[in-house]
Amino acid sequence: MAIVQKSSNSLAEEANKPTRNPLRWVLLLPALLVIAVTVIYPLLSSFVTSFREWRLIYSPRPGGFVGLENYVRAFSDAGFLNSLQVSALYVLLSVSLSLMLGLAIALLLSKPTRLNIFVRALLIFPFAVAPILKGFSWRFMLNPEYGVYAQMIGAVIPPLKDYLWLGNEFSALLSIAMSEVWGWAPLFALMFIGALGSIPSELTEAARVDGATGWQIFWKITLPLLAPVIYIVALLKIISSLKMFDQVVIMTGGGPGDSTQTLYYYVYQIAFRNLDMGYASAVSWILVLVMGLFAFLYVRTLLGGRH
Amino acid sequence: MGKSKWVWLGLLMVVLVTGVASVTAQSSVPYGLKAGKPYNGTKLKFLICCLAAGQFAQLSKLTGEGGEFQQLTGISAEWENTPYDALQQKILVEATTGSTYDVVAWVDAWGEAIKPHLLPLNDRIRADRINLSDYPNAYIRAASDSGGNIYGMPFRGHPLILFYRKDILEELKLPVPKNWQEVVQVATAIQQKKPEMKGIAMYYRANAGQNLFNWVSHLWGIGGDILDKDNRPIFNNELGVQATQAYIDILRKHKVTSEAAPTYAETESSTEMFQGRAAMWVGWWWYWARFSDPKTVVPEVMGKVGFAPAPGWGNNPPQTYALVWPIGIFKNSKKADAAWEFIKYVSHTDVQKKVASNRSDLSVADNTIVTFSGMLDPKVNEANGGIPRVGAQVLRTARTLPLVRTWAEIQSVLEVGINEMARGADVRQTLNRMARDVDAIQRRAGYYR
Question: Is Transmembrane one of the keywords (chain A) (predicted)?
Fold first, then answer.
């Protein structure tokens, strides 16, 4: 038995050793090529463009280098600063609501009853809906004249009857966030259900024997043990929220005024409406840096956890 | 005379008759097209979008393989159906670096960046004796530059029309409004008598510049303008403030439109009319087909929608925005002569009439037509309920948007500002801020050097 154990351990060690076989590079080459063409090259190209003056309405080719001018312009551009604020508020709303709602759903469905298992299977559906469809559906449902959500909310909270959900700065952003939470919270719930299942039941049983209430068990045991999963999920959602674009286009067009112009939407406006490619590249790179920070934290946490 | 001489004479006669017949046949090629198929076998590539539009669907069939145009000229055209949102970029890139396409159609406001890459058509227009006065001035202006060069022929265009509920106005004995002041009066009267209905469906949401359509009717109607002759913003002067205040007052002071109008674009506001919740709406004339479609409107609205010229200001003739798609030839095209034959065909009044009067297939029926002679044609009007004639009336005094390269940026500033005012921002202050932003855009673009 000991010999079998030893040989299986040495096999595992052997498998984990970095191989020197040059074939690995050949096998990796197609993937590396795809990444180089679709990710590395556009990133480098836009980085170079961000230091140049290039307005497509004047020239098909990038103009001269202007140093940091495009970056300096961004930080004195009211539109960019507004979109930074909007994105920050949107991230805060969508991440916190998705986490809270996802956790609440997970706690409700954590017991493996037949009904719960059936409902868990349904949870994946909202996430499977395309963002653009979410936008159209929510825009329709929030219409004050014939929208089903608007009518339901008006029936439950009479002061909100006929409220223009997409006509007010905060509620428009909240509506976009809700359209996103609607898809993400159930997905998070599934992740949390998995994490809840891995918490040893002895811990909660022992706490209960010691007289802890359900609320105390949640705060002192469940939540701390879920913290690593919450952290990873939050990072993932922050990255996703920073990319918010589809529902903005469909539901509000960046309005009312410019109150829902997220960074992504603003970049789209500059690049593909105003055709100011140099400036759009600079703003994109600011976004890349912000997202890169969260992506780095996410990957580091994931890999750190694995090792 | 010997027998052989008679044979020769007979042969000569046959040749003469055949020749004359052939020349007659060639000179009778319709639509001003060149006789003798000199470009036989040429295949053109046409950069365009939106083939779902009935007019485009019909014309693409007429000019494609086996279509009438190919039978007459031997030329066929392949219509590249580009998504609308990608079209402007694709045109710019193609215009400057590509040589894939020969012909292009563009939206008026994009024109200033595109025209330098197109062939001027003045000589061709002159040589083919094309009557430009048959096309609305606004359309020709949108296709020209400040030097008088014409880069495109009008191809598809729209005037703004006031659609109204005939039954409601008749029941309440109200006149069809001719200007915005009357619109407010009529709308107020309708809401007093029919509180469940909005007087007019308006749209103030920022969405591809749609909330500018009725704003410029106010602004131009009162004598104001967006930019002056040096391309500096002047929409915030006294006339601009007065016009904008009137435009916003329809929503905020007179309350004759849905409170949700700041969140409505063209689609939502027209839905108000389709579903019988509003008595009037101002929009493009092609909506007539939708108002006549039982699948689009509720039964109580079907057949009860009338139309009139879009309202103006006071007693001044209405000056509304006329949207046009000119069609031109890329400088890079190696088939410019064949491309010109194609342009002549699709913009010819007889072809346009044929398309506009064809209602054999309702899925591609389209009342859109760009020539005055077509708009006044009895057959075209009979097929389209008379709306082409009303469109002609509007287009006599209609205008085009400012022809500046920076229009896309300016439009963003204007539409966001209008939306803010619709939500209660002070009109004068907002206009002043918008003017400063537009001024900065113009300065950055080098307009004041």
Answer: yes
